[in-house]
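RECORD TYPE: protein structure
NAME: SHOCT domain-containing protein
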Amino acid sequence: MNLYDGAALPLYYVVIIIITLIEKRQKTRIPTADTTLEQLNILYDSGALTQEEYKNELTKYFGGKQ
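PREDICTED:
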């Protein structure tokens, strides 16, 4: 057994993890939304917006009214 054989297995796992993360990210793409409000909800539900960003965008959407 040489050094390369020992390093190949962990590299394999790294590649699998990277592929899995890429696939997961592609699944969280924004589906088509009919309205801006629906799109904001989708972004928030998918984790693309933080709670603070979501609140700021809602404030903009409703014209600054709470």
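COMMENT: The two ends are 67 Å apart (CA to CA).
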